[in-house]
């Protein structure tokens, strides 16, 4: 269970910002925030980390968002999708099935030095890890300042990103 940042302050239920230290904590935060998404989700993961994003509860929450009412949008940026494609990552398959709602792009070559990873929901809720190969980070269902800053960075990267040829389905 993530450690709540408000522990020791009376544990008010409306404040659920958490520090994250383990795979299970990051998985739980991703699932909970995605389950509460209504309009949009921005995800940056260098290689679609299968232990986080090829995780059935996360995929179920993402599918539910995508089919929730026609307006939801999921934008995903990756540095390299080759390992995910070769492993048969289920998030890629979901994106192929729901092309009107989920789009994955590859970062431009000159923007691939990012070390962090993040998920932002509805420009308000955030899971952010400063170093993508670590599970240490933070999660908050209500941090619009950080969420908007990350989305602004994401959108700038999105504009220079391209469709990933690795993600095209081959029909033989």
Automatic annotation (TrEMBL):
Residues 25-170 form the DUF7931 domain. InterPro entries: DUF7931 (IPR057691). It comes from the Bacteria. This is DUF7931 domain-containing protein. It comes from Nitrococcus mobilis Nb-231. The lineage of its organism: Bacteria, Pseudomonadati, Pseudomonadota, Gammaproteobacteria, Chromatiales.
